[in-house]
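Need tokens for this chain, all 389 residues.
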Amino acid sequence: MKDITCIADLRALARRRVPRAFFEYVDGGSYSEETLAANRADLTQLKLRQRVLVDVSERNLATTVLGRKISLPFILAPIGLCGMQYGNGEILSAQAANEAGIPFILSTMSVCSIEDVAEATRKPFWFQLYVIRDREFSRDILARARAANCDALVLTVDLQVLGQRHRDIKNGMTVPPEIRLKNVIDVATKPRWAWSILNGKRKTFGNLVGHLKGAESVTQLSKWVSAQFDPALNWKDVEWIKSVWPGKIIIKGILDVDDARTAVKLGADAIVVSNHGGRQLDGAPSSISMLPAVVDAVGSDTEVLFDGGIRTGADLLRALALGARACLIGRAYIYGLGAGGKRGVAKAIDILKSELSVSMALTGVNAVESVGPQVLVNPPPRTSAYGKA
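Here are the structure tokens for all 389 residues:
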């Protein structure tokens, strides 16, 4: 991967190596992909303030999240079907994160199971939960996460109904999945990918197999998952989760000041400002445009993490400047996984680390914990679309 210099290079390579249906599953957004585009556009509109003649010979990229020191201010986000980008994808990504000294978050809808990742890594990781109709399943999987020594729970709250993703429908990523001739031909032209999948531990939702008696096929499991999204989801469900999970809780999917305040009242140890990567409510504001108001509203009471559109180290610096404690990266490392397995994930992490370090130096900052609005040319006022926070 010596010719890979940026995340865009990893994306281009993943696009060649991963079957189109699975690549576009992680690459795309909902409906017209307005919010997906806004996440990137609004980040790049934030201009960095170049400073000179500052001694930046030593730079510290470490920070603390939930009382744990991490070597870099970012975390590998939960990705559904991560293991369909490359065989054993969740295991390989977790291993790369461990080696880099940063957290990895395993999705409920992963291919490798909680136990698979725990056995392969022997280190704590975070677990992401969707609150679904089947409370027995939720209770059981939380017990499994505790047994696997997961040290934080990421509760995703913005998926009570599923935003339509046009690319998935066109590619047959539906419930049940459609087997199309063009997809079969596409897979046949991706021998590297096919070999990795064939040699992977699992080929379906690893956390679900065994829970549904007699439902081991992809089609049956997909139908069950689709029926489990709960439009009746509300804040009382968060209270129930807190009653059965004894550890740290992070609420992911906050894009509104009032919701942020409610999350804090319910005892969230951290929140993630996120619009689900532009995959849910199309037309919602970008995550970065809402970050300052949320930080002003609750930043003194809880840790605020950021998710949405990170592709460069400069993007990380921008989010940190607006008050994020750390950032979740999703597509950036998934492109690396699709491009080259564990080595690709490590490459993505290294690219972001190097770019962040250089961006810090050229803005005259020596430590992540010293980053603030001073690194931006015109920091946005800390207001939201709904008035002063």
